[in-house]
Structures are given as C-alpha cells and as structure tokens.
Amino acid sequence: MNADTGDVQPLDPEQMEAYFALLEAVSLLQHQVEQHLRAEGDISYVQFQLLARLVHAPGPLTMTQLADGVVYSRSGLTYQAGLLEKAGLITRGPCPDDDRATLVTLTQAGSDLFHRVLPGHVQLSRTLLFDPLADQDVHHLGDIMTRVRDHMRTLPPRSAAPRKRRTTPPRSGSDPIAG
Amino acid sequence: MNADTGDVQPLDPEQMEAYFALLEAVSLLQHQVEQHLRAEGDISYVQFQLLARLVHAPGPLTMTQLADGVVYSRSGLTYQAGLLEKAGLITRGPCPDDDRATLVTLTQAGSDLFHRVLPGHVQLSRTLLFDPLADQDVHHLGDIMTRVRDHMRTLPPRSAAPRKRRTTPPRSGSDPIAG
DNA sequence: ACACAGTGATTTGAATTCGAAACATGTACG
DNA sequence: CGTACATGTTTCGAATTCAAATCACTGTGT
Fold this sequence. Notes:
The structure is a homodimer.
Chain A: H1 13-41, H2 45-56, E1 61-62, H3 63-67, H4 74-86, E2 90-94, E3 102-106, H5 108-130, H6 135-153
Antiparallel strand pairs in A: 1-3, 2-3
Helix pairs in contact in A: 1-5
Chain A binds a DNA duplex through α4.
C-alpha cells in the first residue's frame, strides 16, 4: 500500500455533506434517546436493546445470541447482563443443552419496564427523526440505510470472534417498536 | 400528556425499518472507521474530528469552539486535548483576548497526520457507505440527514422528562450542541 | 479413555466518556 | 472599589466499553 501518495480521489462535496450530516444526526439522536431512557426507566440504550431482543424472542437466549447486533464484545454483555440481573429485569440460568452456555430469561419486571418506556421511545423517535421528514423521505431513508446496513453486515462479524468466524444468519433481529 | 397509558401509536413498519437500519448502519460504520483510524494513525475518531476542525479552521480555536459538535462534555475535550498535546499534534496556549480561554493550535505533525490518514478514511467511507448507493441516493441522503440534524440542533432540550424533575440550577455553560 | 482444538462465558485492565464540582477570570452594577 | 454573577477550563469520580487472558465444557480423533 502506498500511503504516502494521496492517490485517492477526494469525496464530492455532496458526499461529504451526506457523510457528516449522517454521523452528526445519528449522534444527536442517540444522545437524546439515551437521555430519555435514563430519565424514564433508568436504563441505557444498550439495555433497552437487550430487553427488546428478549421481549421479541420466542424464549430465553444465550449470552452470545443476546450480544449479537448490540455490543461488539462479549464482555460488554456480561457487564450489562449483570446490571440487568441486579435490577431484577432478567435472570441468568444454566442451559440444559449445553452446560457452558447461560440462558437469559426476561422477568415480568423486565417486560413491564420495556412496555412502560416503549411509548415514550416511539414518541421521541417521531419527534426527533420523523417530524422533519415526509413519507417519501422516510421510505427513501429506509431503503438507503437498509442497503448500506446489509452491505456492511457482509463484511465484519459483530460480537467479535477473535478466534474464528461465526456463521450468523443475517437476521434483522430487534424491532422493539413493533406495536 | 398521559404518560401512564400507552396512547401512542406504534411506528409504521416503514418508519421502524428506517429507524433501526439507520442506527445499526451508523453503528457499524463508526466501528469500522474507528478500527481503521486506530490502525492507520493511532488516533480515535473523536481525535480525527478534532484535527479536522483545526485543519479547516482559519486559525486557533478555543476549547469550547473545538468541543462544539464533537463531544457532549467539556471535560471530555480536556482529556482528548491532553492526549493530542502529549502526542505532539496540537499545542495549548493562552488566549490574548480572554485570559480564561485556552487557544488550541494545530502543529505541523498534527496536520501531517491528518493528511496522512485522510485518504484511507475517504476510501473506507466510500467502500462502506457510498458503494451501494447511487448518486441520487447520496443526494437524497444528504438532504434528509441535513434536515434532521438541523431539526435536532434547534430542539428544546427539555421536551419529555415528566419524572425526576429538579429545579434547574444555573445552566452550566452554553449548549455544545446548538452551535 | 485421553489429548486437543473449538466454543460459551466471565474476569481483568486500560481507555474513554460524562456530570458535578472546583477554579480562574471577566463583567455588571451598587 | 467590591460584591455577585457569568463564562472558560480543568479536576475528579463513576459508568461503560473493548480486548486479552482465563475458566469451563463439548466434540472429535486416536
């Protein structure tokens, strides 16, 4: 690789604008959502995502299944699961099929909390993201970002497999705002 | 409004898709960019942003000016500025107009590093973000996200916080978001 | 049965971030 | 002048994240 010569074409002004507006807007959105969830239910956005996955899952999930798509390290999930368990929102128990695995189960309190903060979360995403957009914009945005997301999903594993690659089905997974 | 009853309509499937695709795509993009910058120039994305602001600024910036739009706390910038100064990429000096302020100046090494990692950064954003998009998509994406960003920049911070209300103490500093 | 690589989860340590409080200077007003 | 408040920055503590190392179990080959 010749890193000394700048033999890469610069981005068009339009690309630059899209790139930076995208990153900054999402940063603002994430920050607001984080503040809201903390004030409303005393949970972080990561914890909200984990509860959402459990709510929409057919049953208990293993730690790795729960981590996939939410955090980039398994240890990060161990930490969050500890907090959620201490708060009484989930329980961790052994997996009958595999003694190495830990099955995470949503408690009634966890389900209650999720459904308590969900309306506000939906309302906030409306206020922040969808208010300034027309229906056509939303359609186009979803189309664009779905393509980008699926494109990037094909490249990296999510929850970091330092040893070997996992064959994770590209499932859409969490949709906590499904009424 | 009544926060106890879930009298909020769920999002349309199309809105839901756009919302989650947006957040996950940007999360993946940020993570890849972070990895790249760390490997290429041993800097974080935040540090890259700070160098970028200094490169494009007409002259030195104060800490607050530098923080705007990059971090959500001034202390976070103090920490990063310390790292950048220790790495020889910036210098901090007094401000002649205001003895309270600190002027941050880009060094030659800082400028060199920025221009060294920029081509790879641009190339990566191309590969991850713009490859699956047509020119018209890029245009629309920029238009949409610019509107969303500007919309969020000008929102009242206290929109929905029914619980945990405390008499607002002196508003510490200016809003780093609303430049 | 036994070694051994592969996999699930946790522990540990370092890095980064934010919020509150402390600190220093500037400004307004009696 | 002097006091009170506003503004720019830093210090400090707590929370969160990741990567590397570690522990525990599974399955396979011999």
